[in-house]
Every structure is written in structure tokens, then in C-alpha cells.
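Translate structure to sequence.
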């Protein structure tokens, strides 16, 4: 694959350090939400933790990750930046995700993000921290991952068409 000085090569596999980085960022994102909920209700905090795990380790894996080339790689465990070492509960699907798959994944994200808002609205500092970390997470993902990811079926993939074509020709 040829690359110019301004073009970052595609990331064909993740390393454990990628997992550590992105999960640390995710924990920083979830901390203000969990703290705001936990200050007022242990029960609702447990519900939130359950929702987060349900979304990221069941729904997202089933409806989004199964379409990803990183998921399809050999082995019984996932080796990607978000779910390193997680067992593969579902069979890989070597096609782009359909509208239903994207809708379920998006709905899960929206629920996980919006669920803590009633508690965060009572804690303005935590709400501000939460919104800032969400923005930083999304901007960092968009800038450093989406432009070099080989999951071309992802709706957020920003790999230029010519680089995508060159990669696909080389892979065949």
C-alpha cells in the first residue's frame, strides 16, 4: 500500500495498548454519569451499569461488531480497540451492517448517553464534564481512528475512496 507523507496508513489490526487507551477514555466518559447517578441512587447506578454492559457487550457486538473485519479475524476472542479479549458470542457477518443493525446500535448509544441526564442536570459541574468528555471522545475517534479504519461498512468511516480501493484490491 503506498502512502504519501500526509496520508496515514490503514490500521489493519489493533494492539492491546489501543484497547487500554480507548477503554480509559470510555471510563473517563462514563465516570461523571455514574458518579452523578450513584450520589442519589445505588439502584439506578446498577441499572446504568447493566445498560452499559448490555449495550457494549451484547447489542453492539451482535448488531455492529459482527460486520467488522477486526471481529472476523481468527480466534475465539475479539482483538479490537474496544472489546479486547471479549468472547465472540456471535458469528461474523462479512457484509456491511444493514439499517436495522445501525438503528439498534445507534439507539443503544443514545440510551447509554441520555440515561444519566436527569441526574447530571442536578450536578452542573458533572454535566459539563460529561458533555466535554463526550465531545473529546467523538473528536478523537473521528480524527485518529475513522480515517484509517478497515471497517469500510461503518457509517463513520472516513477512509478516502482511492485508499479504500487500493486496500481492497490488495486484500483480494
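Result:
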Amino acid at each position: 500500500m503506498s502512502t504519501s507523507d500526509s496520508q496515514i496508513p490503514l490500521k489493519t489490526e489493533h494492539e492491546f495498548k489501543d484497547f487500554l487507551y480507548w477503554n480509559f477514555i470510555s471510563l473517563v466518559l462514563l465516570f461523571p454519569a455514574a458518579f452523578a447517578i450513584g450520589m442519589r441512587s445505588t439502584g439506578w447506578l446498577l441499572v446504568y451499569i447493566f445498560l452499559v454492559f448490555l449495550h457494549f457487550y451484547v447489542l453492539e457486538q451482535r448488531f455492529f461488531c459482527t460486520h467488522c473485519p477486526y471481529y472476523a479475524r481468527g480466534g475465539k476472542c475479539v482483538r479490537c480497540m474496544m472489546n479486547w479479549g471479549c468472547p465472540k458470542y456471535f458469528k461474523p457477518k462479512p457484509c456491511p451492517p444493514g439499517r436495522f443493525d445501525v438503528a439498534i446500535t445507534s439507539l443503544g448509544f443514545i440510551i447509554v448517553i441520555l440515561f444519566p441526564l436527569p441526574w447530571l442536570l442536578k450536578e452542573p459541574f458533572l454535566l459539563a464534564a460529561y458533555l466535554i468528555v463526550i465531545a473529546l471522545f467523538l473528536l478523537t475517534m473521528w480524527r485518529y481512528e475513522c480515517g484509517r479504519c478497515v471497517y469500510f461498512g461503518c457509517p463513520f468511516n472516513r477512509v478516502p475512496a482511492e485508499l479504500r480501493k487500493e486496500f481492497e484490491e490488495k486484500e483480494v
